[in-house]
């Protein structure tokens, strides 16, 4: 199913609307490495929301960029500071991996787009509101919306995390969202799980029984299943060619 979906998405790439407002002819994006290999990003920085926000803002300003992006299939130490990502708090995942010797979820399954709070978020293609929730545990998604789409005979989902709480105030399950429609905005830290302002964008092939939530970070030992079920969302964003 994953390969079929990727094939169908590639066929339709030129038809996708930009998820965030970005003009590659006049604006710039940068790639941001938050992996364990970034020795510059120390625990003292990422464990402090204010310092972490200042770190990301400084990177964007230094490069005169509008957004900083990255994170797919990135192994991050920063999740180890939150109890939310400890193995004991894992939900029941389908086809779980061998968890021996693993203590937390650290592998990121979506792409983060770091930018200003209030940045509008648009639907890349038409769909319906599958579900939404306020996942308000510190370190979680905060306000979250999941859209359900169909291309040909293939059904799939896109997840938008760390949104403004106001975005889900009057939303309805089953509500149709048109291509290009603004339905969300980057949330402030107090409504987005206490993160610097950004969007977590993720593709999901099989959402199972999840509603308003789906793992955006998995245990490294489970990566095969989760990377197949959440393919690289840049196939929709098309940002990699803009760097």
In words, what does this structure look like?
The chain is of the alpha+beta class and 243 residues long. The chain has a single domain (2-242), classed as Glucose Permease (Domain IIA), CATH 2.70.70. Helices cover 16% and strands 26% of the residues. The chain contains five helices and 13 strands. It has helices at residues 2-11, 43-46, 49-62, 223-229, 234-237, and strands at 29-31, 67-70, 74-75, 107-108, 111-114, 120-122, 127-135, 142-151, 154-163, 176-177, 182-185, 198-204, 217-218. The strands form three sheets. Strands 1-2-5-12-9-8-7-10 form an eight-stranded mixed sheet. Strands 3-4-13 form a three-stranded antiparallel sheet, with no helix packed on it. The two termini are 30 Å apart.
Q: What is the third-level CATH name, the topology?
A: Glucose Permease (Domain IIA)
Look at the helices and sheets and give the structural class: alpha+beta
Question: Strand-residue fraction?
Answer: 25-35%
Sequence of secondary-structure elements = HEHHEEEEEEEEEEEEHH
- Tally of individual helices: 5
Supply the CATH architecture. Distorted Sandwich
Major sheet characteristics: 8 strands, mixed
Alpha carbon gap, first and last residue: 30 Å
User: Could you give me the name of the CATH homologous superfamily?
Assistant: Glucose Permease (Domain IIA)
The rough form would be described as globular
> What are the segments in which pLDDT stays under 50 over at least 5 consecutive residues?
89-101
